[in-house]
Write a structure and sequence with these properties.
heterodimer, A: 161 residues, mainly alpha, 7 helices, 81% helix, 0% strand, B: 82 residues, 85% helix
Chain lengths: 161, 82
């Protein structure tokens, strides 16, 4: 029981690092990709948040990004093993195209997450740990404090830019 | 049975996202909390029905809800411009 909690926490940390680094690598905080993401970014900046962090949070809301890719890849590996992860990447790509996004972040996130999850399953982790872990990771960014999360992303973004 | 804790975490976070959505006043800032709820529910769908085709259901739910959030945000953005 405690062991599962430990695995979920480790999975959450890995998923957090994976999706933030991929989103920042694909320049999600640079600008709001669509007008809705732009508006969310400005609303967060209006509450003393960081503008770039706000744009990235808007982009996460408005199109499936690396975090959605990681979640669906974990779901795919959970129900169908490695082919399920690949199928999840295809579904995320289709979803990205529906949302007028180029789809680099979501698709690469799903593929890399599939490989990472398959690797961690060799050392005793379960795919279900990564589903819960990714939900926990998105909670820390989108669900606790918009202001602090956007400042944290803005800090990473200035470090990259 | 071993994934019961993971399932409970997904459900708890989905409920938390729903409560925060209701408590938040500004519509645009509700959307990130809705996003958290969607993540939790997409995970829950897979836990409740572990079958390969469930992946399609979870992806359809997630992409559809993302598209809705996108539509709400862009409608508000356009109304502000006018």
């Amino acid at each position: 029981m405690l062991e599962e909690f430990g695995r979920i926490v480790v999975a959450a940390v890995i998923a957090w690092i994976l999706f933030l680094s991929l989103d920042i690598f694909w320049r999600l905080p640079q600008k709001g990709g669509v007008s809705g993401a732009d508006a969310i970014g400005e609303a967060i900046a209006g509450r003393d948040g960081d503008q770039h962090g706000g744009w990235m949070m808007g982009n996460i809301v408005c199109s499936p990004d690396a975090s959605a890719g990681t979640l669906l890849a974990a779901c795919g590996v959970f129900v169908a093993g490695l082919p399920g992860g690949i199928a999840a990447a295809v579904l995320v790509y289709i979803g990205n195209r529906i949302c007028h996004d180029k789809g680099y972040a979501g698709t690469s996130g799903a593929l890399i997450a599939t490989l990472i999850i398959a690797g961690f399953m060799q050392i005793g982790f379960f795919a279900s740990d990564f589903i819960a872990g990714m939900v926990l990771a998105i909670l820390t960014i989108q669900g606790i404090s918009h202001i602090h999360a956007s400042r944290l992303i803005g800090y990473f973004w200035r470090w990259r830019a | 049975m071993e994934s019961l804790i993971a399932e409970a975490i997904c459900m708890g976070i989905a409920l938390y996202g729903a409560v925060r959505t209701v408590l938040e006043k500004e519509t645009l800032l509700k959307l990130p909390f809705v996003n958290v709820m969607n993540f939790g529910i997409a995970g829950l769908i897979v836990f409740i029905l572990p079958h390969p085709l469930t992946l399609v259901a979870a992806a359809a739910y997630f992409v559809g809800s993302t598209l809705e959030a996108n539509a709400i945000a862009s409608a508000i953005a356009r109304r502000r411009q006018e």
